[in-house]
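Reviewers asked in the last cycle whether our approach scales beyond single polypeptides. To address this, we selected a multi-component target totalling 830 residues and predicted its structure end to end. The input consisted of the following lines:
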Amino acid sequence: MINKILSTKNLSLKITITLFVVSFLICSLIYPGFFSWQNFFNLFIDNSFLLITAIGMTFVILTGGIDLSVGSVIAFVSMVIAFLLQQGLNAFIVIPLGVMIGGCFGAIMGLIIQKFKVQPFIVTLAGMFLIRGLSFLISVESISIKDPIFNRIANYHIPIAGGAISVNVVLSLVVLALGMYLAHFTKFGRTVYAIGGDEESAQLMGLKVGRTKVLVYTLNGLCSGLAGVAFSLYMLSGYGLHAEGLEMDSIASVVIGGTLLTGGSGFVFGTLFGVLIQGLIQTVIMFQGTLSSWWTKIFVGILLFVFIVLQKVISNMKTTKNEFNN
Amino acid sequence: MAAAEPIIKMAKIEKSFPGVKALQQVDFELAAGEIHGLMGENGAGKSTLIKVLTGVYKADSGQIFLDGRPIRIKSPEHAQKIGISTVYQEVNLCPNLSVAENIFIGREPIKNGRIDWKKIKNEAETVLDKFDLKIDVDRKLSFYSVAVQQMVAIARALIISAKVIILDEPTASLDTDETNKLFEVMRQLKSEGIAIIYITHFLNNVYEITDRITILRNGELIDTCLTESLPRIELISKMIGKDLEQIKEMENYSKNIGENNKVLLKAEGLASKGNIEAFDLELKEGEVLGLAGLLGAGRTEMVELLFGLNKADQGRIIIDGKEVKLNSPKDAVDYKIALCPENRKEAGLIGNLSVRENIILALQVTRGWFRKLSQARQLEIAQKYIDLINIKTPDTEQLVKNLSGGNQQKVVLARWLAINPDLLILDEPTKGIDIGTKADIQKLVLELASGEGMSVVFISSEIEEVTRISQRVVVLCDRAKIAELTGSEINQKEIMYRIAGGEA
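The resulting structure, written as structure tokens, was:
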């Protein structure tokens, strides 16, 4: 049993989960009032939009790609939602529309990446500039959302275990479950892993590489569109400067969650803990009281360094083991 | 068996790439239940023919018939669907996925809307059982040796109910036992009526396993014969298109050069702990010194000391009578020593640069980047070596990645010849290339030694090759020099006897 836990299989994921649990317990001992269900739920409430977009990002990174546009898409979607609601459109039309915008945008970038064989980095970088710029065409000011239906959804709380969670949390957990199902139990998901492992081989094995890659960026677009909805529900406003740098937080979550940046290895479930660890750091800094918020960045930076090195060490350990066995 | 209705018939296939006619009017037939060898030099068109058959390339003209019906094969996926599967030399599976998943991916059984992992595991075990392969199918593919990976690739082909399996150089990285095992599997498949196309450079293998052989040369079909009625020497001459006499001539090219030449480099008690034990070595001008020994015997380690890739912790190197320190390859190059390493890609062949740029690279480095060779001079040098060692390329500006493996190897060689070295070290220069190019390189080495007075160290795993071109042979075993042979001692039997630990 101990051997099984210490085996290199999924070691990165195990370390991430352990790190989260241990840190949460230590903080609970240091800071009175830290350990409560509500405080735990808050991690989800405050980071549900990050979780949703990070799940999409996990798929992109699993194929060996990257998407820098997600933060901008969230800002744009929040802007569109706020604007259309201001114009008096029904929230139940506006919300799916927001998700669709993200999906379309992702599909376009995916098609460009696939058809013209362009680096995802550069295509999504262009997308990032373009779509954030577009949000300012709608308005340079922040638009607050006063639509009653939208506000009711935003403020609706589901009581659970003595605390309460928001609709966003349910939304993000549904996306998480769907993501896990997609990744591990569908042909689409397995093709994603195969592409990340060796794209040329995947092609020669007769897998639908092109279609899958376009679908992955579309899926990520849909996720960031949905994250845009969640973000609007969370902030109750639309603004072109919303979610700035969120693409980086999202990538960081995926990597801390144990997914290899080179693709082909990782878990959607790990991304959840990547998000939670980042959320935990924020919460701790809040509880600590004297540290400034940029300490979050410092800790996340250090964590990333540690995890990237760790992944390298683990994969090296595997190669040496391999040599002994053959 | 040849008389039976062919399962696959390719008629008058043509395919051109910019500057190269890869296939011209090639016909090919494959019968059910036969093992059909496809032979030819590198660049003869074997891979192109296979890629046309598997839908990777589209033929410019010609027709393909499957079971007598004309068919257009659109993609590798389509080829697999109609029962044509390929197992490539560099196993094209996904190293990050489990063995079982590699066998099934693309046609996973679905149960209740989700992949049935249990069934995948069970069926993977069943099919590998057929090959007598008992491994943990849940482990990642990269965990296992290339031999196992190849079996997995074949298992995959079977699972997708292949009628035709193409094996592209499958034994290149297998040892004898593994090769035999593969052959057993191939015979088993054959008895089940599956047709196999087998591409290889190894003559022994072809004669052991195939029923018929098709020979291509320069994109043209030369012949298709029954294996039993085709003598080896005839096969070779069909492949390389040279007279048999020419091949034999090289055998006695020159055994007695270099006898009284002056000593160029001398190593005394040179050693590097853990890499190679202390050895003495003398290299004369104009001689070819062969290094023989099994893989890992210390051949590469020995020459790494001579090239400054590794530092010796005892002993000394004397060049032209003066003791020198070789602390880096740059030092060695300054003393006009060149090393062609074993692996083309690691050797720094840059696929996206042209033949010309690759050839002048080392020369430019020795001059320093600020004394750039003029364009005209670069062209002249490149053309000289293209002609000298017969590099098959449309022109000097062709990108190296578009050349065949053997010609890429020649470009590496040209790069080092361009600095005009006194000592040229070749580490497995003929590994994985065809007989024609092999003969070219061997001949070139002999010419360089006898004609230009260059001293050559030649490493090869093929003992026969070493005996053919060396004037002296150093035998290595377990990271130590164990013998030095000259004259009539240089023969396969003697070398094998020494490696096996025989007394002097």
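The first helix of chain A runs from residue 2 to 6. We regard this as preliminary and will revisit it once experimental data from Aim 1 are available.
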